[in-house]
Amino acid sequence: MDTLRGIFQAFNPDVKAHSSAKAFDTAARNYAASVTTNLPPAARAAILQQPLEAIQLVDPLTNTIGHLAIIDILLRGPTPASTPRALILDEALRFLLQFDPVQIRYVGPLFKSLLDDASSFYTPKVAVELLSNAILRIDPSGSVFTSTHLNMAKLAYDANCIEPALRVFDADILYYLRPPAPMRLELNDTALQPQSYIPAAGLTDVVKSTSVLEYHFLQAMAYISRRDWSKAQSALERVIGHPTKDKGVSKIMTECYKKWLLVGVLKDGKPPTLPSYITSSTRSIYAGLSEAYSNVASLFPTDAAAALREEFEKRRAVWEEDQNLSLLEEVLVSYQKWQIINLRRIYQQVSISHIRETTLSAITAETLTDDGDVLMLISEMIESGMLRGELQIGSTAGESYLTFHEEYKLMTEAEFAAEVARCHASIEALTKQYRTTNERFGTTKEYAKHVLREQKRMDKDNADAGIGFDMNVEDEDLMTGVLGSV
Amino acid sequence: MAASTSTQPGSDAQAYAKSPDVIVTELPKLDIDLYIQNYVAPRAKANFVYLVVVVLGRTRYERLLLIGKCCVPLRVDALKAAVIEAKSGSDVTRYKDALQLLRSVAPDEPEAQRDEEWIERTELANRTETARLETELKGYRNNLIKESIRMGNEDLGKHFEKIGKLSEAADAYNKMRHDVSTTKHIFDCGMHLASIAFQRRDWATVLSNVGKISNIQSGDDEQAQQQAYTKVASGVALLGLGNYNDAAVTLLHTNPNVSPTEYNTVASPNDVAIYGGLLALATMDRVALQNRVLDNQSFRAFLEHEPHIRKAISLFVNGRYSNCLSILESSRADYLLDIYLQPHIPTIYSMIREKCIVQYFIPFSCVTLDSLDAAFGSPNRSVEPELIRMIRDGSLRARIDTKNKLLVAVSPDPRLVVQTNALAVARKYEQEAKERLRRMNIVVAGLETSNSRKQQSSAVGGSEVEDAWYEDSGSIPPTTDQAAEVDVGET
């Protein structure tokens, strides 16, 4: 045990104890190597024999490197029967909630493997919580895509526990990583951006284009299951707008396009428009593969409830095959709701009986039979925030009136200023990110090649053909021409 | 408002024009109303006389036939006249058509008897004439005299047009173009082709042919005559295309000092007044109507032919909308018997009506539906459905309050508008900036989806980026510093 203590407490995790940040970096690296790859087999055996004492050796918060090494050995090695596994798992849990985000960079691969296995150690709900917590602890902005993201999304969607994953889903992913640059980084440098240290510390596997697509797809599905149409739509847009090469469109993208049409209809009550950055060839591929869906989307804003219903019945097999049946049912249900919302453009106040007569339900393709049902539908819509308005209950349901309110609420100047300031700040932050991205791109091999090529081209252009016009001709001799005066 | 709506209803009208049968069955119903029927007969009779007298050429038959088809009180007279008209020419098909219609309406009339002898004689004469002209033309061709070839073609074209072979006529007229030598020839050629296109209702061809002759430079007198013809012809063609605003502007510029014979193969001065006045009423606002129609010295001369159009326009300008509408309504039957106006009348009338409602509503912040009904509705029909349609189209900025029976003007809070717009722009900008950054990073990491398997294997790994990746533009934003700098610069 004393040898162990000697090994594990050899490192002083306090930054101030080191002469410089660089010294800390070197020390941390050496320490990380000594407790993982260079750990003597005897020490490993000692840990496995006395798990409880080993865990007490170092504190997870202050000495994350050492603690992770011990946890890892305990989780993977055979522990004595006297120590219950649950105890070790509890320790690991405590560690995952408390680890130090800087020190963890020195034991990245080890930590990643712990995260990868988290789903086998804990129930899905706990695992999702742990993963999302770990992701945001490593990178508080959540803007770098890692392989852990995908694992978490899969787990959350399969086990249907979206709630704990939302913090990660809501963060905007901006960076996708290339394999680490060969140069050595000081991992404890506070100015280091997550997009630099995450790959350098080995905190992610190499990601493929399919994993990016799959992640956003799962993200969208999670939002769909929560009926958060607007977030679902932007997630789907990330998939369908994924950059393509050689006119290639993957299956997952076309599937998402179909869902995107339906979600757009649910969100805005009319077919959505594709973002401008999608190429025309991709557009035509989408259009060719999703005729049934675009029919439904274009029928939605019209009065043709019967046609919509017929389309739904006729293509039932298609919906089932694409697993979009429930989404389509949702569309049919919301048809009448959107009809009512659209009435706000015509009426200021309108009676419930009038609404009943003028709007059709897409489920039956007829008007509702009872004013009471309409009243209920409208009060539901107002409660859910879908419709901005007010009900005036009369003596009967038919004599009740609905008053439409403005689509947007007037903000006070202060609220407005705050909102503008928020936008300003976030655009400001983006500007910085653009700058760093710009620098990053400036150092790529491709850009260097491009600059070289441009230079060559410029040189060629500048080369003067024959006599230069730049030449200063002071006195031109008409008989001999320019040459005469030179 | 006028400019934006002028094209759309026109397309409806064109669809409508393809099935004029609708009108044929509807019109008698309209005329059942005793007052209107009494009014239609003498008015339309006058029209009828004027048509025969004023309008020349082949349109005369067309107009007669249309009246025969559509107007119950006049159809026997009109068809009889059409038969006679056809018989005085040499187009056998037209005779047969008119005869058939007349027989179905009034089989006992003497004109309804089929004149087999005339048919045979005319057909024979037509054949010999065609053969003669063709031989002559061949002769001219062999002699290579340009002017004779041109005249030969012109004669042949005229002949074909007379006997109703329109496509052959168009071919012959087109051949004239090779041998033109003076501006007059160019003008004739264009006019012939336009005339054929008119008979085929091919408005685009009319416009292109008229366009070709409208810029010809010639003497002052001729210029004025040509101007009158080109304005009238292109005005009518634009009307046919449903381009009401342009048609109105074109017709308003017609020179009134030119003798009507220059353009009455297309329309009479009365027609010019009706078309121009109605279309201006449908598409222009009050100020424009005052300045460009009522105060327009040259168009005033035309309006004198049709005083009630002028009355309607001045009523509209003075804000007496229901009177204006009732004048127009009383002449509806006449206009429905016009060959060019007929398919467009429902659209033009509803446009005028809508404008009246919109104008009526402008000074008020809210109006009771009852007063609107009193001004615009008919006894058994409320204006509410019409209002709903107009609000839906966006031509009327108002909301209906069914509880208090009011039409309430929409007065958007400018602060709210500014706030929503500002925030929407800011969010959109933020969103787009993020998305572009994201896409650049995807591309630089080599994570695009790829088509061929081979490239995919290299792209997926992420380590290899094709040398030419920055060259294929397309959707991918230019990933080098330019793109980044542009966006940064905007912030």
Biggest interface and residues each: A-B, 71 and 68 residues
The averaged pLDDT of chain B comes out at 76
- Determine Rg of chain A (CA atoms, Å): 32 Å
Structural class call of chain B reads: mainly alpha
Number of strands of chain A: 4
Q: What's the order of the H and E elements of chain B?
A: HHHHHHHHHHHHHHHHHHHEHHEEHEHH
Overall outline of chain B: globular
According to CATH, the fold-level topology of the largest domain in chain B is Serine Threonine Protein Phosphatase 5, Tetratricopeptide repeat
Question: Total domains of chain B, how many?
Answer: 4
Spatial arrangement of strands, main beta sheet of chain B: 1-3-2
Q: Give unreliable regions of chain B as ranges.
A: 1-56, 453-491
Largest sheet of chain B: 3 strands, antiparallel
Order of helices and strands of chain A: HHHHHHHHHHHHHEHHHHHHEHHEEHHH
What CATH architecture of the largest domain in chain B do you see?
Alpha Horseshoe
| Structural class based on helices, strands and sheet pairing of chain A | mainly alpha
